[in-house]
Write a structure and sequence with these properties.
The chain contains 15 helices and 14 strands.
């Protein structure tokens, strides 16, 4: 095939692997992924893996885990999804995405290999396999792997080496159309990453969740570590409360891995410095002219509760304007998300956006979001279906803090407009 030259060509090539709309459940299987990894020589079993599942906090925990391992002098692969600014975020080494030329060169080689196998993986499977393959080529010591959806049948769940470590972050109701409509069903999917003998780290959560975690751990003869909340630890007080939880969980896992694998115990200063790693679109703040912009993909009730609590803590008594957009399959989360925002927002700007990476998605309409606001007696809502107009409106608001939230695809689209000055 012709060599891929840039990210635009990479995205075009990858788009051919996006499954048809409505096929998510049908494609929710490990059969293709196992066959593909076997054809690649099972690179995922050539280095140590930290596998991270959960509803909320798994991306942040993955970044913190990678940062701690890098601070210990290890070479670390990291793959997360969805990507926020560019597709190379899915293949990172030492928390740095592959630079454009290297990513495109490696993708060209990889796609040629995949095409020769005659297999047809999905977009997500292809990029997970690329990450596993590239980490082996790069000779990483560890790979931190974020689950895409669920765990049991997720494309990342193909690691069979006996030294994998599992992290289960906070579990809540999300993706119920695929994972199940109650916490026990969802927890069963999340804990599907636990393999025989794996060390497992999880915060103590509701009884409904913990019953599943304990049962699966027992069935797999796993080494379960139930972590309690860090409380007011000085080292993490600069982080929002929800990030304190994520960092502390990663820190506990690092201490275990360091003891098992004879890694250095990090000095307090080096450990604290890992908290500074930037986790894209997780209460990520930046200054834009005279405004503070906050980007956060809080697309369910659990995430929104954590976000609004952190904003109240960091920006007390500050007026905040909010831009909100969600994809259609988050319809069930719309009212609780709006309810959370109504407690901090002076105005909500409802909008739409281009959606979809792994599978085709459609955004909720601006008028549907506005309707939900009014159902909750929050009347300070504006409808701006055109994203550019919505962003201009937001930037011209008098509030000193502007929050862009809801779908990660909305966050990604707004950041692209600001970056490319397309307003």
């Amino acid at each position: 095939m012709r060599r891929i030259q840039n990210f635009s060509e990479a995205n075009t090539a990858l788009a051919e692997y996006v499954p048809p709309a409505g096929s998510q459940t049908a494609n929710y299987t490990l059969d293709r992924m196992r066959q593909l990894m076997s054809a690649l020589g099972n690179p995922q079993d050539t280095y140590k893996v930290v596998h991270v599942a959960g509803t909320s906090g798994k991306t942040s925990t993955s970044y913190y885990m990678a940062a701690l391992l890098v601070a210990a002098g290890q070479k670390v692969g990291l793959t997360v999804s969805p990507h926020i600014d560019q597709v190379n975020e899915r293949v990172q080494v030492n928390i740095v995405p592959l630079e454009e030329k290297r990513f495109c060169d490696e993708l060209t080689i990889f796609l040629e290999i995949v095409q020769k196998t005659g297999m047809r993986p999905t977009y997500f499977e292809l990029l997970v396999a690329l990450a596993y393959w590239e980490f082996a080529r790069q000779g990483v010591d560890y790979a931190v792997i974020e689950v895409g959806l669920g765990g049991l049948l997720d494309g990342t769940n193909v690691v069979t080496s006996t030294d994998k470590v599992c992290i289960i972050t906070d579990i809540g109701l999300d993706h119920t159309n695929v994972l199940g409509r109650d916490l026990a069903s969802i927890a069963t999917q999340k804990t599907g990453i636990i393999m025989p003998g794996d060390p497992v780290f999880v915060y103590r959560q509701t009884d409904e969740v913990m019953q599943v975690v304990r049962r699966v751990s027992t069935e797999q003869s796993a080494d379960l570590h139930e972590v309690t909340s860090p409380g007011g630890i000085d080292a993490v007080n600069k982080l929002p409360a929800f990030q304190q939880r994520n960092w502390y969980l990663a820190s506990c896992v690092y201490d275990f891995v360091a003891g098992r694998d004879h890694l250095p115990q990090l000095p307090a200063k080096a450990r604290t410095e890992t908290q500074a790693v930037i986790v894209p679109a997780r209460m990520e703040c930046m200054v834009y002219h005279d405004k503070t912009l906050i980007f956060d993909g809080a697309h369910n009730a659990q995430k929104m509760h954590a976000l609004t609590g952190a904003i109240k803590q960091q920006f007390p008594s500050v007026e905040i304007a909010v831009m909100l957009g969600l994809v259609e399959d988050k319809e069930g989360q719309l009212l609780p998300v709006v309810r959370g925002l109504a407690g901090i927002a002076t105005v909500i700007i409802a909008t739409t956006f281009p959606a979809g990476q792994d599978i085709p998605r459609s955004p909720l309409t601006a008028d549907r979001i506005a309707q939900a606001c009014r159902e909750l007696d929050f009347s300070a809502v504006e409808e701006h279906p055109q994203l550019r107009e919505a962003v201009r409106t937001l930037l011209n608001r008098p509030e000193p803090v502007l929050l862009i939230t809801g779908s990660f695809y909305l966050v990604s689209a707004v950041r692209k407009l600001l970056r490319e000055r397309e307003l």
